[in-house]
């Protein structure tokens, strides 16, 4: 896909990422990286006794993978300045073997106080291989504006 700046996005525009299969190794590595070694993620005997009936991925692992899949589209290589925030819901478990992808829609765009940047709000959903939404929410990003757009407006 083409690299984009704030000006290049349109409200309502939709993007779908490729899918990525969640592995046991992903969960173990995320537990080590995050320090979250809860038995629900790492101990099958314990997890079988929970309402989930088995081990599940960390919710933040699913969110992190969705964010990474979005970045892999290559849209923000030059345009992103900062990740400003998110509002997020964890709806259903992500399990070992699930193939997740993200559907992302441009929800809102507005200029910032500085003329060389704008704020983009994205509505995102993480779906599994059965197209069930397992997580959803919004991401807010600060993006650069294109130089030529700013120059033409100042004339």
TrEMBL record:
Pfam families: MaoC_dehydratas (PF01575). InterPro entries: HotDog_dom_sf (IPR029069), MaoC-like_dom (IPR002539), MCH/BMMD (IPR052342). Residues 11-123 form the MaoC-like domain. Coiled coil: none annotated. This is Acyl dehydratase.
